[in-house]
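anyone seen this seq b4? input:
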Amino acid sequence: MSNKISHPGVVDSIEGDCVKVRIVQTSACAACKVAAHCNASESKEKLVDVIGCDTAKYATGQEVVVSASWEVANRALLLGFGLPLLLLIGVLLLILRWTGDEGMAALASLGALVPYYIVLWLLRDSIRQQVSFRIEE
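predicted toks r here
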């Protein structure tokens, strides 16, 4: 099993040291033979920023393969889903235990996500350097 995630794509644009690559993200069942007849299969086009690469090597419309390591993917999942879920459940249980009011606990746990995502947004440049794709040579 490979320890990286790869997607073929096409260079959409080049801005400074950033290459924007358009990839098609498909669900696991999109490759199924009956996917065209099933509502469960889906595919979406995504733009991926590849930062810090030699942009002189690439041109708009060029086919490339972008990849990320499993560590990068796990870090992105942790920041995007894991930590918010733990924060949501932790605040919910804490407020429920203190007040006994389910409505207050639900609102407080949802409200606790607001500062989390604000901090995430403020640290986006730092996170972008740690959680990024690379173009395979």
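The chain is about 40% helix and 30% strand. Residues 40 and 83 are 28 Å apart (CA to CA). kinda curious what u guys think
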